[in-house]
Write a structure and sequence with these properties.
heterodimer; A: mainly beta; nine-stranded antiparallel β-sheet; five-stranded antiparallel β-sheet; 31 strands; globular; B: mainly alpha; 8 helices
């Protein structure tokens, strides 16, 4: 008997078989390709018309997100804003699911959307170097801002607060960027940073708000671009030697959460979390070190990637697996607000809705299937 | 905090070539679930899995370019598996001498000597070649099941849905493939 395991042996799998899998996997999803039309005209006119049709066709295809190269139509986790769940459906657009109505509707056609950021006011999307907003209430779309051609090759969006939007203006020729913070309603420029190197910490990564509180994350010594020192009113919120990851910032319930790292104590099964409440409270809680999919001010939830969903009680660190009314094989990524849980899987096009059932003490106990696929349209 | 549409691999690779750090973020957004499943199956520890995936992203950043992966997902999975196995071996070495918390081992794995010996490396290579030989004899449909189930740990129900077949039919075919592999390895005096 050999000591070699299957995993070690599979390291020598011919990579062409792995490539074949992913190509076959992508082909298993519905996809169509449009073919360019050719007209018989005089030679020059025919060439110009063909060129025009190819360019226009490619533009239209990309706007409806039919990509020529192995496009993946798998579902992707959305976002909960003001109680409604916003998610992208390939080849269709951004949809919103309303738990009150128990129904979903399209809020933005895929033609307009390359990437989007959403807050309580609207959906912000980019086209070239321009930013547009689609107001959630009226559905109206309007232009907000265009970055100048002279110093911007492409842009990206980030949500700053419940109403502001950060536009990162990249210059890939110089590998520099700057950020413009816009009022999400009016497009007014509230702040603009100086050009900086790609490697430096961006304004949107170092400035956060929760309720009326403002936080600034500073780089520590020695310089680390990811682990930062969180401060409020110039005072550090953590003991010496402790930092937070700039990527760990997220709002859950009415609090802003960060994962803490200690220079002399790596995290294993448990981690400390810095929790900043909108009510002004600041605390450090020790909980299982997991990739949480959201929750509320009392419970967090995480997926075990096909083996169920686990609930963690914040006050005690106690955790348990929720029972489930339906199979959870495809519960991979989750987004939840403590009332409803939305699940997706990278190989599935479905967006599934579950109700979090609680006992008489209001502790979550079960997931009840509400809708097997709100991406159906 | 944004919700992007999944970009194509060509778009993500263009970001790598432009040395735009957005490449890492888009890679994570598009492939994290796949990669997480692969790493966690080996390591069974969230912090180690997270570290393994981050290391694999760094490997991707450092190797693209000049690497020009034809299928980005395949390239990333390979990087993650290597990192995961390296981490698993380190955990064993540390467990033996460092007194750290005992790692949780995947089912069916036994603690062996820390790290592969040259003989084990050669044996792994030999078994790997045997698996490749078997795969070359299978149909495309069978290869899809083998790679999906045993390399990527995709659930049987998901594989069945992708092929438009019943779960039991897929399970039966996987059992057939396993039997073929066992026969092939036994003919070469190898028992896993």
């Amino acid at each position: 008997m050999t000591n070699v395991t299957m995993e070690q042996a599979l390291l020598h799998l011919d990579s062409s078989y792995l490539e074949e899998f992913f190509i076959a996997d992508a082909a298993a999803r519905p996809s169509t390709q449009k073919r360019a039309r050719h007209r018989l005209l005089r030679l020059v006119a025919a060439a110009l018309c063909s060129l025009f049709l190819i360019v226009a066709g490619a533009n239209v295809l990309s706007r409806y997100d039919y990509h020529p190269f192995l496009a993946s139509c798998g579902s992707y986790p959305g976002e909960i804003v003001a109680g409604e769940y916003y998610y992208f459906v390939p080849h269709y657009g951004v949809m919103a699911y309303s738990p009150k109505r128990g129904a979903a509707r399209r809020v933005l056609h895929t033609y307009y959307v390359d990437e989007f950021v959403i807050n309580e006011y609207g959906i912000y999307y980019e086209a070239g170097r321009s930013v547009y907003v689609c107001e959630l209430e009226s559905g109206q779309r309007r232009h907000l801002y265009t970055a100048p051609r002279t110093d911007t090759t492409h842009i990206a969006l980030d949500r700053m607060t419940s109403s502001d939007v950060a536009v990162t203006c990249y210059n890939k020729r110089e590998t520099t960027l700057y950020q413009v913070i816009l009022d999400g309603r009016t497009g007014e420029i509230k702040h603009q940073t100086e050009p900086q190197n790609y490697a430096e910490v961006k304004y949107s990564d170092s400035h956060h708000t929760i309720g009326e509180r403002s936080l600034v994350l500073y780089q520590t010594e020695p310089i680390d671009r990811i682990q930062l020192d969180p401060t409020e009113n110039g005072v550090s919120l953590l003991p010496a030697g402790a930092t937070v990851s700039k990527y760990s910032a997220r709002q859950i319930g009415q609090s802003l959460w960060f994962t803490i790292s200690y220079e002399d104590r790596p995290s294993y099964e448990y981690a400390d979390y810095l929790v900043l409440g909108a009510d002004g409270s600041t605390r450090i809680v020790t909980l299982p070190y997991k990739r949480y999919g959201g929750g509320d001010d009392e419970y967090l939830f995480y997926s075990t990637y096909g083996d169920g969903v686990v609930c963690v009680e914040i006050a005690t660190g106690r955790s348990w697996t929720l029972s489930c009314s339906s199979p959870v094989d495809d519960v991979y990524d989750i987004v939840c607000d403590g009332k409803l849980l939305y699940s997706t899987a990278p190989w599935s096009e479905e967006q599934v809705v579950w109700l979090i059932v609680r006992d008489k003490d209001l502790a979550p106990t079960e997931l009840l299937l509400v809708n097997p696929n709100i991406a159906d349209h | 905090m944004k919700t992007p549409i999944q970009p194509s691999d060509a778009q993500i690779l263009a970001l790598y070539h432009a040395r735009d750090e957005e490449a890492i973020r888009q890679t994570d957004l598009k492939y994290r679930s796949y990669l997480y499943a692969v790493a966690q199956h080996i390591l069974r520890s969230v912090p180690d899995t997270e570290e393994c995936i981050n290391d694999a992203y760094l490997d991707a950043w450092n190797t693209i370019p000049p690497a020009q992966p034809r299928v980005l997902a395949a390239y990333l999975v390979t990087l993650v598996r290597r990192r995961a196995l390296d981490a698993y071996r380190r955990m064993h070495r540390q467990k033996r001498g460092g007194g750290l918390a005992e790692p949780t081992l995947p089912d069916g794995y036994e603690p062996t000597a820390p790290g592969p010996t040259p003989e084990e490396e050669a044996q792994a290579r030999r078994i790997g070649e045997s698996i490749n030989t078997l795969l070359s004899q299978l149909t495309e449909r069978q290869r899809y099941l083998f790679v999906g189930r045993y390399y990527l740990h995709v659930p049987v129900s998901v594989l069945a849905r992708a092929q438009g077949r019943s779960r039991s039919a897929v399970q039966k075919e996987l059992a057939t493939i396993k039997a073929m592999l066992r026969t092939q390895l036994e003919s070469e005096d190898i028992t896993l």
